[in-house]
Amino acid sequence: MLLVIIHELWHFIAAKKSWVKVLEFGIGIPPKACKLWTDKSWTEYTLNRIPLGWFVRLKWEDPKVPEEFNAKDSLIKAPIHKKIIIMLAWITMNLIFARLMFTLVFWIWTKPISVVPENVIEIENTSLMTPSTSYLEKNWLISWDVHKSVIVEEVLAWWLGKSIWLNSWYKIISINNQNVDTLNISKTLKENIDKKGEIVYQTDKWETISTWLTCITKSCELWIIFLWAEVKELKFPLNQAMLLWLKEIRAQANISLYSLWKIGKWLISFNRNEMNNSVNKLSWPVLITKIIWTLFLWKEWTKLLWLAGLISFALALFNVLPIPALDWWRVLSSIIQRAWRFKAEKYFNIEWYINLVFFILLLALGVYVMLKDSIKLWLHIPFLG
After folding, report:
1. Among 13, 67, 183, 354, which one has the highest count of C-beta atoms within 10 angstroms of its own C-beta?
2. What pairs with residue 45 in β-bridges?
3. Kindly report the CA angle at 374 between 378 and 289, in degrees rounded to 5?
């Protein structure tokens, strides 16, 4: 939420510096709860009823009010370069913040936050913080054998892991008579989607237990953190750390764009299972909050810094997608309107409705993902899972 307000603050500052009227700086999403105060330039600071972020409302966004839409201090009357600066001002802050966080992390010291299984991403993974097994081995970052038993460190949510009573320091031995280790457990679980099979594990008192594991159609995830191979620390001189941030951002961009492409492909496949699977892959912000809280309890401060930088970069990446209601779409709309000389009142009146529809769809998707993650993490409601 802090990163979102930083994001919107740069829109706010860029608009003020460009002499474009800022009508409202809102905390949360309307409907409005109350007005907090009004500054000297008559910008209202408001508190809204849906606590899902912040927003900046500029003077131009309602073509139905001609005196505001065509006023000298409205965004529509600003030169095209100032429009682009205002709409894309966030990217400066997002990248500066991500660069600062990643540089600090690589300079101080840290270990990878997680290791991505080989079969999850079908592209080369060069991230230092979320590397693949092969990348760790190639760069001599693993200090001993990775093929070790799956020993549970923590069960994150009331989902499959807790439903079969897994607990810390339990060792998973096999799933459906197939021996599992830290490298093949993800693949083995995927092979059992929509199936009922036997899982064998050993408790911390050396008692061997066999029970049934039922995977639903949508996914087969235990929601556990397990101990892994000993991975070497990442620590670099400051000048090298200041270059590695760019490599990390490039790697995270590749991973994110690949994941979005795959999710989008599933969504338009019209296959019910794949569509459900694509939506279940989306997690924000409830799961992120759980991860942050877990890292906070473990006092993993450098990993928290890296996660803050990643979220900042993710906000920038998400907003450059050409989706109506997002910033990059508005830049494209302004360029199209200027290049083809469409009449502003008619063009932006149509765009206003397009943005409204997509904003409602994005908000609905966000609420659904929040409810889904909340159910997985804290509630046990199988029919809503």
Report:
1. 183
2. 25, 37
3. 95
CA within 13 Å, CB half, 314: 17
Predicted structure pTM score: 0.71
Domains and CATH numbers, the chain: 1-87 (no CATH), 147-227 (2.30.42.10)
- Between CA 255 and CA 252 the distance in angstroms is 5
382 cis-preceded (ω within 30 degrees of 0)? no
Distance CA 208, CA 152 (A): 15
At which residue do the structure tokens 């700086």 appear? 25
End-to-end CA distance of the chain: 26
CA distance 172 to 203: 9
Tokens 């961009």 appear where?
A: 253
Per-residue pLDDT of the chain (385 residues; tens, 9 = 90+): 777 777 788 888 888 888 888 989 998 888 899 999 999 888 999 999 887 778 888 887 666 666 666 788 887 778 888 888 888 877 778 888 899 999 999 999 888 887 776 666 778 888 988 888 778 878 877 765 666 788 898 887 666 888 888 998 899 999 988 999 887 888 888 888 878 889 999 998 889 999 998 887 666 888 888 876 677 788 899 999 999 999 999 999 998 888 888 888 877 777 777 677 666 677 766 777 778 888 888 888 888 999 999 988 988 888 888 888 888 888 888 888 888 888 777 777 788 888 889 988 888 888 888 787 777 665 544 433 3
Tokens of 164: 């079969």
319/329 Cα distance (integer angstroms): 8
d(CA 286, CA 1): 12
> What count of residues does the chain have?
385
CA angle 70, 71, 73 (to 5 degrees): 125
Closest by CA position to 319, among listed 48, 19, 99, 53: 53
In the structure encoding, which two tokens stand for residue 348, read together?
């932006």
**210: nearest Cα among 220, 221, 218, 202:** 202
Other C-beta atoms closer than 10 Å to the C-beta of 15 total 24
Q: Is the Cβ–Cβ distance between 114 and 131 less than 8 Å? A: no
The C-alpha atoms of residue 40 and residue 299 are separated, in whole angstroms, by: 43
DSSP state of 207: -
